[in-house]
Amino acid sequence: MNRKAFLQQMAILSGGVGIGLGTVTGRAFGQIPAAYAANAEAGKVLIIIQLGGGNDGLNTIIPAEDDLYHSARPTLAIKKDAALKLDQGMYLHPSAVGLKKLYDQGQVSIAQNIGYPNPNRSHFRATDIWNSGSDAATVLDEGWAGRFLKTRYPEFPMTLAKHPMAVQLGSVESLLFQSEQGGFSTVFEDPNLFYQLVSGTPSDSDIPPATLAGDELGFLKQIAAASLQYAGVIRDGATKGKNTITYPTTNLGRQFGIVSKLISGGLETPVYLLNIGGFDTHANQLTQHANLWKTISDAVTTFQLDMDNQNLSDRINVMTFSEFGRRVNQNGTAGTDHGTAAPMLFIGKTGRGGLIGANPNLKALDSNRDLKFNYDYRQVYSTVLRDHLGLDNVRSQQIFNATFERLPIFKNSPDLLPEAVSMELIAPWPNPASDNTLLQYGIFEEASITLALFDMQGRQLHLIDSGLRKVGSYSVNFNLQGYAAGHYLISLSTSRGGRMTRQLVIE
Fold first, then answer.
1. Which of 160, 222, 230, 241 has the fewest Cβ atoms surrounding its Cβ within 10 A?
2. Can you tell me the distance from the alpha carbon of 108 to that of 346, in angstroms, rounded to the nearest whole number?
3. Model-level pTM greater than 0.85?
């Protein structure tokens, strides 16, 4: 049994639950600490806010000048006079007054129409897709952030760290931070109570037996010891840190207040995950959605001011994501049902500011009468990793097993906006393969395509498929006989200028 399977079995045996104290939980032994790199790239910090339930993008970044928007939502549409004007005929939800001020200061970047091909409408599966960084057809048990942290901290978990690699405020560890080496996040709801829970746990320094079981027992002891260590580091950071301004009394406000103390207290953790639920607005959406965006706006703007006051804001960016958007048309209960594409927000001084990409096109919906996405969410993640967290192109390709063009989100991002996604190349299956592998691709706009095999030096070895393709899905069985074992690239390009690659391993 490998270590990952072993850890999964242990989680099953232990029930996979946190240790509770009243309403506060702390997972003392449910996560594995990360090895800390003393010179993390540029000291940048990414704070992710997960909008649980599926945020209604059309009522967040509002096409208030589009008559089709108002006709699709006779009672839910927000009128232009009530909304907060942005650019390009788009408006911000009227409850997000603080975010509007930051937008006017160039501190809010909004990537429009973000999604992926063949979107899933299940809360659970869609959340897993966004957390894993996979396509809709691929199930991964690793998170995109976990794979990123693995590249930065390759000696984890055998080399323990001074500081936790990732912090998640909550009680249940997210797939986002999982990797084949274990989970990278430390999960808690309150730093002091987390310390109180964990510090009472006795440590075991006895040397385990020189057996396979002993190796795994030693690994678990290492985890336990690190949990004790991180509890103290987190408590000390929260104690040394400060808030220069009073945070809102909401749960999200409390989470941001904790993050502020940890950052100002010297915690050198690059990735934080915060959560706010309630976005599954099937009924009576107007009031609920307004309250949610007021909560987000108030918490984020307070945090930005706090970081400004402490001269820390230049290295921090806050990113929002949700598992899907909502339907264009309102339903019969004054709400909206599960949809597809939606905007993502980036708040902070590292961003360019402004709207990124074309406005939602309500005249050209997909076959389900949903919004078409313009940019793949993995383009966004790749941009974040490369332009904010300092990852190189090669390692970014490895994380997503594909190349994605970056968006002009950050000040150091490419200037030009890439063409909207017009294709999808599914990861080969099986992979690794020895005899044959199935290649699947989708075309969203009619175009001539070229599907080819390349070596890792970029030399074309074989033209697999080509020709004019109408909108639809295609598959090719590719015979691998005659190719030496090793790593290769499958490349799909179209006459519209797009290109996607997937890695193929031949055994």
1. 222
2. 6
3. no
